[in-house]
Write a structure and sequence with these properties.
- The protein is α+β, with helices and mostly antiparallel strands and about 350 residues long.
- It folds into three domains: about 80 residues, Rossmann fold, CATH 3.40.50; about 60 residues, Dna Ligase, domain 1, CATH 3.30.1490; about 170 residues, D-amino Acid Aminotransferase, Chain A, domain 1 (2-Layer Sandwich).
- About 30% of the residues lie in helices and about 30% in strands.
- It is built from eleven helices and 19 strands.
- The strands form four sheets. Strands 9, 10, 11, 12, 13, 14, 17, 18 and 19 form a nine-stranded antiparallel β-sheet that branches.
- Strand 13 and strand 14 form a beta hairpin.
- Helix 1 packs across helix 10.
- It is globular.
- The relative contact order is 0.12.
- The mean pLDDT is about 95.
- The structure holds adenosine monophosphate (AMP).
- Adenosine monophosphate binds next to strand 6, strand 8 and strand 14.
């Protein structure tokens, strides 16, 4: 078989680092484009090109050498990806999908158009919208910027109407959505992959614990009923089909007391709640993503019966040694400088073998 051209990834963080490691296992070279050449992915990628995501000449030259362009984070200038697609480069997932998901409002409207349940929400364009919005969502509610939010950033809680002004100030009056507080019994996610032929595979439903909007732990299998787990996978499949999605995606859910699921959000990429698959599944989410975007066949992953992942955030890095001593497999992202809320690494513990 002729050797495939390298896979190009926009972004050089830990997700790109683990994608590049999976590439090596598959015999695929991985090229990284990042504004910062000293990024975590530099350790495992075949090549790092230091360039701005909006430098069209640089991204075109980068794409020329690659069979497909993908990305490891959502907050990219989507017009750069449209530019590449228009020039005939394969971009997976496609720029239209990224554009839809980059805006919480269009993402929610898409989910509603698919008949998928989500938390009640209202659109906020200006301070005058709050009274009607609160009447729709009730309180407490969470104000979320439509764009550029991640790990709880760009989110402010409101428990009384009088707090609306301060909350809107806190998000610098950016266009936003106000969302009802969901009284969930648990949060869970499904990581799945789809290729251009329409083959769809997925990992078991994972249970996720967040603190201050940041993922702390993921445990698989989730402690939900079989019916709820099947429902989560059906919803994920529907989303992937409707989007004609190519690559790995994660769908995050709120599970309500009766077992009903509301979709929280879609991540069009490999996902933190799928890190347990590295060591806990064959193939892992990183290999599956590369397989899906390069048009390889997909088969259902073989998984361990139990796995747990915990993030090492901010100054928690010193815990790594202790966890390693207790049998956890620790992955250090090599970021150097710890900052509050910054993901520095993670640790995975599995029980049983891959079957
Ligand atoms: P998000 O960035 O929207 O995924 O939010 C990050 C985390 O904040 C979620 O995983 C939840 O733990 C929490 N959260 C976000 N929205 C809500 C909501 N409407 N009700 C309750 N918790 C929420």
């Amino acid at each position: 078989m002729p050797k495939l051209k390298p896979v190009g990834i926009f972004g050089g963080g830990q997700l790109a680092m683990m994608l590049a490691e999976a590439g090596t296992k598959l015999g695929l070279e991985t090229h990284i484009l990042s504004p910062n050449a000293a990024c975590p992915a530099a350790r495992s990628a075949s090549l790092v090109v230091e360039a701005d995501y909006e430098d069209l000449a640089a991204i075109r030259a980068f794409a020329e050498a690659c069979s497909v362009i993908s990305f490891e984070f959502e907050n990219l200038p989507v017009r750069s990806l449209f530019h590449l697609a228009k020039a005939g480069h394969l971009v997976a997932p496609g720029p239209k999908v990224l554009e839809l998901i980059q805006d919480r409002l269009t993402e929610k409207q898409f989910l509603q158009s698919c008949g998928i349940a989500i938390a009640p929400f209202a659109r906020i364009d200006g301070a005058e919208d709050f009274a009607a919005a609160i009447a729709d969502t009730g309180l407490p509610a969470v104000l979320k910027t439509r764009h550029f939010g991640y790990d709880g950033k760009g989110q402010t809680w409101i428990t009384a109407p009088a707090q609306a002004k301060a909350a809107f100030d806190a998000i610098h009056h950016h266009p936003a959505v106000l969302e009802s507080a969901v009284d969930f019994v648990r949060e869970c996610s499904v990581i799945a992959a789809r290729n251009a032929k329409g083959e769809f595979v997925h990992f078991p439903v994972t249970e996720n614990l967040h603190k201050n909007g940041i993922l702390r732990t993921s445990t698989v299998p989730a402690n939900c009923s079989d019916t709820t787990a099947k429902q989560a996978i059906t919803i994920t499949r529907n989303i992937a089909e409707k989007l004609q999605y190519v690559g790995v995606l994660a769908v995050e859910f709120f599970e309500l007391p009766g077992g009903e699921l509301w979709v929280n959000e879609i991540a069009p990429r490999v996902h933190n709640s799928g890190h347990w698959t590295k060591g806990g599944a064959t193939p892992d989410q990183f290999e599956l993503h590369l397989r899906a975007i390069t048009g390889m066949e997909l088969s259902m992953p073989n998984c361990v019966p139990f796995a747990q992942m915990q993030n090492l955030i901010g100054d928690e890095e010193p815990r790594a040694e202790q966890l390693a001593g207790q049998g956890w497999q620790v992955v250090d992202y090599g970021k150097g400088q710890a900052r509050p809320g910054r993901k520095m690494g993670h640790a995975v513990r599995v029980e049983g073998g891959v079957s």
